[in-house]
Amino acid sequence: MPTLTLKGMSVQLYARLKKRAEAEHRSINRQAILLLEQELARETIDVKAWLEENARLRKRYPMKPLTIEEIDAFKKKGRR
Hints:
Layout: H1 11-23, H2 28-41, H3 47-60, H4 68-78
């Protein structure tokens, strides 16, 4: 089984990891593995493709930027 050694971890980060591990009744090692698994399982976004799609949609549905007054009016209308 592969082993990973983390060097240069701050005391504060280690303390947070230890506190989370204790709260979730895990070893520090198991908590670190779990957090790595969760982070690496998240879907990554292709930023360039996202920006291109955003630009395409903005051209297709042009809108002027909302003013503060318009935003406030929408907020008030939504609270009714």
